[in-house]
Fold:
Amino acid sequence: MSTRDSTRLYCSICKRRVKGFKNRSGLQRYETLKHVSYNTLPSHIQPVSESELSHLKKAIIKELQKRLKNHHTAVGKQVFSIHCSEDAFVGIFRNHITRYSPCGSSYLCIFKGEKAFDEVGKVLDDKNWGERNYGGG
Ligand SMILES: [Zn+2]
Structure:
């Protein structure tokens, strides 16, 4: 087990590298299956200044509000993207990351249920970031 086939991809979460994958999608599938609740943050994350974070929070709120305005009858998932560094993203959502995927370099944060509105408000430092009655979603 000490020999690693360099043509294969290995799961970076597993301590014992038992199985290699031929391609990234294979590894990603495996990760989703086996490590769906893995949320240890990667060690390369650097702290980001408060001022940069608050700037970004405002940008996120703006984007969210635009979404809500355009889709006020739409309940459910809304997608938008915003430019920011990984460090800044983690700086803001650090305590809310449900899953980190080393293979996909992606993070998952879920806000749902009764408290979700207030939680998002707390994360973004703005209690009035949106209107409460968007179907509770
Ligand atoms: Zn693994």
